[in-house]
Every structure is written in structure tokens, then in C-alpha cells.
Amino acid sequence: MTADTPADATMSPARRLRNIVGGSAGNLVEWFDWYAYAAFTLYFAPVFFPSEDPTAQLLSAAAVFAVGFLMRPIGAWIMGIYADRKGRKAGLTLSVTLMCTGSLIIGLTPGYATIGLAAPALLLFARLLQGVSVGGEYGSSATYLSEMAEPHRRGFWSSFQYVTLISGQLIALLLLIVLQNTLSETALASWGWRIPFFVGAALAVIVFWLRRRLDETHKAEDVKDKPKSSAVQLFVKHPKEAFMVLGLTAGGTLAFYTYTTYLQKFLVNTTGFPKNTATEISAAALFIFMLLQPAVGALSDRIGRRPVMVAFGVLGVLCTVPIMTMLSWVDSPLAAFGLALAGLVIVSGYTAINAVVKAELFPAHIRALGVALPYAIANAVFGGTAEYVALWFKGAGMESVFFWYVTGMIGVSLITFIKMRDTRYNSLITHT
User: Fold this and answer.
1) What is the model's pTM?
2) Residue range(s) defining the domain that contains residue 211
């Protein structure tokens, strides 16, 4: 079997594992680069957005973060089609190249005091590039891992997409902790925040090489007699599945970004913890969250996908407001950690298996686009705006409204989970 031969049942377990690990490693670096922005926002926001009001600075930086998400549907559309027509490996390789470029731009861009409005403009451009990259990355990696895994272990292996996604976020936070403890506050705010973007760019080069060595799961000749992948084909021929992806993603992604990227800022800006304490709480909770993903994925292989996702929906609706309310006034780091972890345990019912659920909904010739585009649209509307909406409500003196907003969107996803078929027993992934 060559590196371009699609995966099938004859592939050795060791080779299959190598491909899954290789694909996952690339996903880790992609998401490290993406989340470095969120992890270091507290330090670089004043460099690009001078203001006397810390909330206003964070709001501006969050707006750029949200705009990056708006590019994800475009990236998902372009690169989803590319991965369906040229192969998953080609899509994975291109996405990491774009991410590397965006990281370098952020790391090298001078601040507002040096080049004026060009500074936030270049920051915005870099995030647009990274948004295109991540938009393509999700569809390609979710599809690749789902297609590479054996049918009876598909939930388990596909969960590694979020293991590596969380790992990327966690490594960004751990790097922040290291820099907080080795650099002065002044040095970190002046130039130290640039370090993770240079690290991410360097790692992306390594990943580019790794991804060139992966086995392919899907090639153009496999679907030569099928309609070409396109957005029109997706929404005309598979509208039910596309809207299911939109529905199940809406609440899941909003909850995920609330308990991950926004949590660190919430603990500082609302609860009143020092920056380093908030970072440590977030990192500890995320580490355990990461370890949960394969267990929940394996559970879905035994009992089905739908019961796991319904559990997330029910618990999310019942517990979001109480958890966030208690987090807003708690004064113990240990208590804050426990509450944050409780929220993340609930969210695991979505994160661990959402990739495989989406991949199992679509046939091969349109799978990467079907996974990527509706997901990216929902991410742009709900996930990418989570921080901005939360900070807006806080600025308006109505922070608790955001908690109810998250609850309502989880409710929308719950309805979708209840109505959809269980893809564990009705998968359209037919090879492996």
C-alpha cells in the first residue's frame, strides 16, 4: 500500500494507528495556533487596541476573534470541496500552511504605537487567514479520522480530534503559565506574547512534513461517477443532514467556547481572580476534559451516538445557568475549578463524538464539505461570537442574560439530537 492508497480493511493496525496519530498531531498544532490568540488576548489587546477600559480592549480583541470565525464558512466551503475532490491529505496539508502564515504575521506585526491602524488591520488579516485554515481543517481532519478508524472503534478514534483540539488549547495555556512565571508582567505585555505565535509557526512546518506522509482515505477516482462536491449539491441533495449539522453544532459549540476560551477571561473580569490563577484553573479543567474524550467516544461505540448527545443536551439545559451563576461569585480557586470541570464534563457529550456523527451522515463524495460547511456556519454565528456576546451583555450590566442564551441554544441542539437517527447504526462510511 502506497501513501496515496485509500484506507481499507487490509491495513495493518500499526499502520492505521500511525495515520490516526499523524493526523491528530497536525490537528493539535492547528488548534494551538488558533487558541494562542485567545490565551494571550489579555496581554496583547492593549498593544493593538489602546484604551483606558480593559473590557473595551477585550471586546475589540474578541471582535477580531469573532471575525476569524466568519471566515471559517468560506474556508470550509473552499477547502471542503478541495478535500472531496483532491483527497483528505491534500486538504490537511493546505490548511496547516495557511495557519503557519497567519501565526507568523501576528508574531511579527508591530503594535498600534508603532504603525497605527495598520497594526489591528494586519492582526485582522492574519486571523482571516487562520479562519480559512481552521474552516478547512475541521472538515478534513474529522473526515480523515472517521474514515481511517475501524467501524467498531470509530467513536473512540474520532474523539482524538477533540483530544488534540483541547491539547492545542491546553498547550497554549501551559505556555502562558510558563511565560507568566518566567517573564515579568511588563515583558510579557511588551514582547513575550509574541513567543507562542513563533512556536506555532515552527511546529506547523513539522506538521506539513508529517501530513505529506499520511495514507489517503479518499481519492478522486473513488467518486469519479458521483456528482462533484459543491455547496449546491450539499444543500439540494442533502438538506436534512446539512441542517442537522447546523442544529447539533449551534448549542454544542457555544457551550464549548463558553467553558474554554471565555472562561479564562470570565474568571478574571467577572469573578476577580488574578490572571495567572485564572489560567491555572482553566488549564487544570481542560486537562481532565481532554482525558474524558476517548472514554466518551468509546461509550458511544457501545451504546450509540444519540444517547450520549441527548445526555449533553439535557444536562446542559438544566445546569448551565446554575454553574455560570456560581462561577460569577465564587472566591475559592478549587471551587472554581470544580464548577468549570462540571461544565466541561457535560460538554464532553458533544465534543467527543460530534465529528464522527457528522461524518457518518454523508456519502464519501461530499463528506468533507458536508462536515465542514454547516459546522463552520454554526461556529461563526454561535461559537465565534461567544466571547463578544458575553462581554457585550456584561458591559450592558446584564451578564446573566448570556447564561440563559447559552441554555437556549443547547436546547435547540437537544431537539436536533432527539430527532436525528443514531449514526452508530446507520453510518454512510462504508469502507475501512
Assistant:
1) 0.81
2) 13-419
